């Protein structure tokens, strides 16, 4: 039986083996591995790509979020609005700085935070909203920014899953006061290890983040702030420059796969993603819904199709967040029971896509 992998990074990297090797040798031979020319070049290229003035490379996506909260002075006694339906890192950044994550439910048709429900969650302690562009599709940012402006609170985008996505022709990462992104290998723009970045048009925010990531220092052994060590290293920056050069092409390849799925999957048996007019997604994940999700997943597995659930348990049901377990967040809880992510990555073969579509169809037929 032919199997279809959920994601095949080896196959992806094979296509850019030469430039990746060249990047490796360039850094190796330079004998300079932290805070150097590759990072500076990548920061400038990625800022330019994202339509913002500044990019600050850091250790990973969680630290990009945490450092931004620190830059804005958010901490104990403060509240930050987060989606109830997200990867746990969004919440961990908030609780990690001592502030309280205040979850807001998603719009079930987009899986993203529902702007209609945000105002009711705002109190005099609310300092920021962190919308997540889940699965590679932007949240409804004009509405979110409007609410934030009215209440004088910050908007920090969690753009970890949305490199290259657009909202009304503007890039994800340029849509709020600042953004955090992740270069974890499986993301649309992934390193060959960990990495992350902060994006912003605010020079003060960028400068402070630049200090914080490097022991609170820009001049060696002069420490203005009690910072951390969270730097995007030269090797990863060099790899990311290669991968940024093919990002648009690879996102288009994901879009082609998504279009094919959306046209061919049987809408009577599964719910396919809905794309609002404002959004141009980059399909980090292709997530469908089924009221027999677990059966469908097992059925696909028997036919060699690997699938994953993003995410099987919302943050408030995680053991580390026992204090939130009594929260009533039925939309996130139900989505967690219904969602299933089909394989999607650049360079999938048409036989693979057909295998998946036929398997989902025959599941319905065999019932
Ligand atoms: C991956 C991810 C993060 C965290 O990024 P890391 O680099 O793994 O720390 C944060 N938020 C979302 C939505 C993510 O998908």
What is the CA-CA span between the terminal residues?
A: 23 Å
Structural class of the helix and strand makeup?
Answer: alpha/beta
**What would you call the shape?**
globular
Q: Beta fraction of the residues?
A: 5-15%
Number of strand segments: 12
Distinct helical segment count: 12
Short account of what is shown:
The protein has twelve helices and twelve strands.
Keywords, separated by commas or semicolons:
single chain, 367 residues, alpha/beta, seven-stranded mixed beta sheet, three-stranded antiparallel beta sheet, 38% helix, binds pyridoxal-5'-phosphate
Walk me through this protein's architecture:
It is a single chain. The protein is α/β, with parallel strands linked by helices and 367 residues long. It is 38% helix and 13% strand. It is built from twelve helices and twelve strands. The chain has helices spanning 9-14, 17-30, 37-49, 61-71, 89-96, 141-151, 203-212, 234-245, 247-264, 293-302, 330-338, 350-365; strands at residues 54-58, 79-83, 100-104, 126-129, 154-158, 166-167, 170-171, 178-182, 196-200, 279-280, 286-289, 339-342. The strands form three sheets. It has a seven-stranded mixed beta sheet with strand order 1-9-8-5-4-2-3, sandwiched between helices. It has a three-stranded antiparallel beta sheet with strand order 7-6-10, with no helix packed on it. Helix 6 (141-151) links the parallel strand 4 and strand 5. The protein is globular and about 70 Å long. Bound molecules: pyridoxal-5'-phosphate. Residues 60-62, 86-87, 89-90, 132, 158, 160-161, 182, 184, 194, 196 line the site of pyridoxal-5'-phosphate.
């Amino acid at each position: 039986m032919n199997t279809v992998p959920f994601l095949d990074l080896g196959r992806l990297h094979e296509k850019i083996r030469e430039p990746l090797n060249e990047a490796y040798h360039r850094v190796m031979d330079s004998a300079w591995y932290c805070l150097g020319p590759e990072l500076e070049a990548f920061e400038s290229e990625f800022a330019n790509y994202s339509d913002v003035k500044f990019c600050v490379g850091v250790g990973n996506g969680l630290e990009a979020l945490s450092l931004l909260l620190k830059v804005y002075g958010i901490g104990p006694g403060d509240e930050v609005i987060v989606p109830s339906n997200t990867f746990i890192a969004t919440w961990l950044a908030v609780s990690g700085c001592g502030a309280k994550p205040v979850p807001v439910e998603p719009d079930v048709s987009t899986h993203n935070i529902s702007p209609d429900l945000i105002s009711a969650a705002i109190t005099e302690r609310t300092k920021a909203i962190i919308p997540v562009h889940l699965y590679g599709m932007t949240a409804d940012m004009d509405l979110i920014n409007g609410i934030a402006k009215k209440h004088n609170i910050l908007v920090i985008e969690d753009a970890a899953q949305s490199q290259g996505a657009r909202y009304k022709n503007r890039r994800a990462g340029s849509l709020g006061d600042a953004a955090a992104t992740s270069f974890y290998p499986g993301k649309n723009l992934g390193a060959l290890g960990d990495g992350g970045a902060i994006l912003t048009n605010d020079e003060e925010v960028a400068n402070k983040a630049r200090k914080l990531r490097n022991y609170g220092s820009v001049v060696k052994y002069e420490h203005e702030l009690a910072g951390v060590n969270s730097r995007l290293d030269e090797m990863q920056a060099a790899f990311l420059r290669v991968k940024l050069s093919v990002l648009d092409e690879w996102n288009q390849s994901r879009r082609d796969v998504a279009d094919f799925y959306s046209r061919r999957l049987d809408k009577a048996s599964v719910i396919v993603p809905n794309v609002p007019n404002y959004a141009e997604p980059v399909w980090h994940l292709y997530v469908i819904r089924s009221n027999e999700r677990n059966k469908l997943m097992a059925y696909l597995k028997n036919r060699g199709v690997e699938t994953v659930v993003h995410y099987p348990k919302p943050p408030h049901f995680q053991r580390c967040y026992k204090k939130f377990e009594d929260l009533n967040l039925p939309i996130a809880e139900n989505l967690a029971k219904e969602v299933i992510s089909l394989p999607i990555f650049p360079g999938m073969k048409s036989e693979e896509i057909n295998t998946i579509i036929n398997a989902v169809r025959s599941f319905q037929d065999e019932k």
